[in-house]
Amino acid sequence: MSQATLIPGQAIAASLRASIREELEQWPDTRPLPCLVVIQVGEDPASSVYVRNKVRACEEAGIISEHRRLPADSSEEDLLQTIEVLNQDPNVHGILVQLPLPKHLHAARVIDRIDPNKDVDGFHPINSGALFAGQPRLVPCTPAGVMTLLEHTKLNFRGAEAVIIGASNIVGKPQAMLLLAAGATVTLCNSKTKDLRAHCLRADVLVAALGKPRFIQADMIKPGAIVIDVGINRLDSGKLCGDVDFEGASQRASWITPVPGGVGPMTIAMLLANTLKAARGNF
Ligand code: GUN
Questions:
Q1: Catalytic residue annotation
Q2: Which CATH number covers residue 193?
Q3: Ligand 1: distance of its center to the CA of 230 in Å?
Q4: Is 278 in the pocket of ligand 1 (CB under 6 A)?
């Protein structure tokens, strides 16, 4: 088997960001520019990096953004009040509450209070329900970005076997809905799945989103499969790696995403796209 072709997430994301920037250069003076507020509760170091990257990408694309920091011991009432004020602000089009939240805060209750029309994460039940019903509105950024990466292959996924490892609300579940809509036969594996290897070996499209460094080894990959690595793990050496053993997997797959430079930049580009969509108000 020859070496897999790289799906260039960094370049695809850059091109999407550039098209958003071009659209914003033509934005009518009569309308407020798209604006995203990212709320971070506490100082989780990984979250701080992610939020900084989101805010910087907004600035570069011409989207107004704010990193709103709340203390780690904020009450749920404080957070809900912050969200309520942003819901009512006509100059704010996107609201994102960075997860995970500190343990005393209940993520589902918090997400429920974000105006579904400003829910650029696509996590509100109105938006996840619309996706489930086959009528997508604001779609979660990471799985939407994965679909854009898959489009890059120009392959047709009707009838393809798609296997997703990890059934989170952020990635796995919405990813299953999107692949189903593309005509794939979808298997959604979770931490209790028996014989994960057998599932993986059937996959024409394998999406790894389980959060375990280099868990997916070459011998779990069907020759010729498309491998999408959603994992971002920091090794003790400080180096980033995905959920897939990239070197080994590249010997078996036909297409593969790198880490870093694959799914990560697409998540951010899709967040900008969702903020623009929310500002336009056309779902
Ligand atoms: N934490 C990890 N990924 C995400 C994401 O896509 N959105 C939010 N809000 N928090 C996250």
A1: 54, 98, 121
A2: 3.40.50.720
A3: 12
A4: no
